[in-house]
């Protein structure tokens, strides 16, 4: 049977898999520097987490969720995003009761949306994101933008455009919704069926419509900037002033409304056009939300956060030749000269692995030359050869693949021998005894 992967999903392997791991590790590391801590909600949630959390008028809830009834007759959904899950996790486990505010969490993993697969758009993709919960201020909003910007810079995406907008408070959005309803009432019968239901549910969503024929109506629609309440305007001014003070470049884009219902006040998106000029869509996005935790019967805490799309980030890194250089390498490759020595090879590999060395072994012994080729291909620093003579004398031959120097070593002494080789390999050539082979930061060197 010729079984393929599900439409809209993709396999990750080889160099690309290394890139995912590196990018996710770097993101986590920087989030930790900003004092965010890791959380891992399940992939599967009861559907109401998203119908209540993300909102009935969003495309995600209306059209894109992978929802099914489980054997206990409960409606379950594969998460289409993380923010609602984090709210459920925090309220259910009462994390607010024992921790100082803001609660700062980061997460990473697959999300599922039944969208039309196209460039930069998958049905299963990975997000890395953060949520900062419990502090309602311009500085909390800005801290998340600084974190996202720092991450993007650190992975090599220098020319990121940050699009920024304010969706204002409740008063702002009520007034703005009214203005949109009045404006679109004249055109709505000529607009797409989606816009017609958006008109009833949440006219703000009309601004997200991608149908070409509707754009002529949308471009002249009232702008939210003209409806910001005094408080929201002050808060937005503060966000902009803080970003400028921190030298974070941004562009105000008052057409940015975001596709999820929970946002209010500050919203933002990160865009990057690779040198190939391909448009994958935003590499990340987020913003402030006011009432989400209340939806889960938690305290009335607001939050702010963002999520990156890892696939899109890896795509632009690939296009611009910026993928982290992670070559898989081994400390040693164990080469039995005969099939009957494979078990001994496995024992030796296991002994070295326990000591923290990365070691592989050859399961199909062949001519020495071709096994050396395999060691080279695997980027192994040493080859360890097990032959008849060696086994009789409980020794192995260990060869440095770089210098070609080889020695016979007792198996009992192999770990010490390798430790010695490895530490002398890293020893600083000034003779100070430190183990920094390239750029030495030892006390002696700093003094010089
Ligand atoms: P979002 O804009 O729906 O926001 O998704 C965030 C990012 O996920 C997007 O900017 C994009 O990079 C990536 N993404 C979205 N859809 C796809 C897709 N079909 N294929 C590949 N990548 C995709 C959220 O999910 C919010 N939860 C963000 C947030 C966190 N807001 C506050 N906190």
Q: What key phrases describe this protein's structure?
A:
single chain; alpha+beta; BirA Bifunctional Protein, domain 2; Rossmann fold; 2 domains; 5-stranded mixed sheet; 20% strand; elongated; disordered C terminus
Question: How would you describe what is shown here?
Answer:
By secondary structure, the chain is an alpha+beta fold. The chain folds into two domains: 14-169 and 229-319, Bira Bifunctional Protein, Domain 2 (BirA Bifunctional Protein, domain 2, 2-Layer Sandwich), CATH 3.30.930.10; 330-447, Rossmann fold, CATH 3.40.50.800. 38% of the residues lie in helices and 20% in strands. The protein contains 17 helices and 16 strands. The protein has helices at residues 14-33, 48-53, 59-64, 83-92, 95-98, 138-154, 170-185, 193-201, 215-218, 230-245, 292-295, 310-319, 342-354, 368-377, 388-392, 414-426, 443-447; strands at 37-38, 44-46, 66-69, 75-78, 103-112, 124-133, 161-166, 251-252, 263-271, 284-289, 303-309, 330-336, 359-361, 380-386, 395-400, 406-410. It has an eight-stranded mixed β-sheet. A hairpin with a 5-residue loop joins strand 15 (395-400) and strand 16 (406-410). Helix 1 (14-33) runs antiparallel to helix 6 and helix 6 (138-154) packs parallel to helix 10. The protein is elongated, with a radius of gyration of 28 Å. The N and C termini lie far apart (69 Å). It binds histidyl-adenosine monophosphate.
Summarize the structure.
By secondary structure, the protein is an alpha+beta fold. 38% of the residues lie in helices and 20% in strands.
């Amino acid at each position: 049977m010729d079984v393929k992967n599900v439409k809209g999903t993709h396999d990750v392997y080889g160099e690309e898999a290394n890139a995912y791991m590196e990018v996710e590790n770097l993101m986590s590391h920087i989030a930790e520097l900003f004092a965010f801590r890791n959380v891992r909600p399940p992939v599967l949630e009861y559907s109401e987490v998203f119908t209540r959390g993300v909102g009935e008028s969003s495309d995600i809830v209306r059209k894109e969720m992978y929802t099914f009834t489980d054997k206990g007759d409960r409606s379950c959904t594969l998460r289409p995003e993380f923010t609602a899950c984090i709210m459920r996790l925090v309220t259910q486990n009462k994390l607010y009761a024992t921790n100082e505010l803001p609660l700062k969490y980061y997460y990473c993993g697959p999300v599922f949306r039944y969208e039309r697969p196209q460039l930069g758009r998958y049905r299963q993709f990975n997000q890395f994101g953060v949520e900062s919960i419990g502090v309602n201020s311009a500085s909390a909003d800005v801290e998340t933008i600084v974190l996202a910007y720092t991450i993007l810079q650190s992975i090599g995406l220098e020319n990121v455009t940050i699009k920024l907008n304010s969706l204002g408070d409740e008063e702002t959005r009520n007034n703005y919704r009214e203005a949109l309803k009045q404006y679109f009432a004249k055109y709505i019968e000529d607009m797409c069926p989606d816009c017609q239901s958006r008109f009833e549910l949440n006219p703000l969503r009309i601004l997200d419509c991608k149908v070409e024929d509707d754009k002529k109506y949308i471009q002249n629609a009232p702008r939210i900037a003209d409806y910001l309440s005094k408080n929201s305007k002050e808060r937005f001014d503060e966000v902009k002033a803080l970003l400028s003070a921190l030298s974070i470049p941004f562009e105000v884009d008052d057409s940015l409304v975001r596709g999820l219902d929970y946002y209010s006040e500050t919203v933002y998106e990160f865009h990057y056009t690779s040198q190939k000029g391909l448009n994958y869509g935003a590499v990340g996005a987020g913003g402030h939300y006011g009432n989400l935790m209340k939806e889960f019967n938690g305290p009335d805490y607001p939050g702010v956060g963002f999520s990156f799309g890892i696939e899109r980030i890896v795509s632009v890194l690939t296009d611009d030749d910026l993928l982290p250089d992670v070559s898989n390498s081994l400390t040693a490759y164990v080469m039995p000269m005969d099939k009957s020595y494979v078990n001994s090879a496995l024992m030796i590999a296991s002994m070295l692995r326990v000591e923290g060395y990365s070691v592989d072994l050859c399961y199909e012994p062949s001519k020495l030359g071709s096994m050396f080729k395999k060691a080279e291909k695997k980027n192994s620093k040493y080859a360890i050869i097990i032959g008849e003579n060696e086994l009789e004398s409980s020794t192995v031959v260990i060869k440095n693949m770089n210098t070609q120097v080889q020695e016979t070593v007792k198996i009992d002494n192999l770990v010490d021998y390798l430790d010695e080789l490895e530490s002398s390999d890293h020893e600083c050539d000034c003779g100070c005894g430190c183990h920094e082979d390239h750029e030495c930061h030892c006390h002696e060197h700093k003094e010089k």
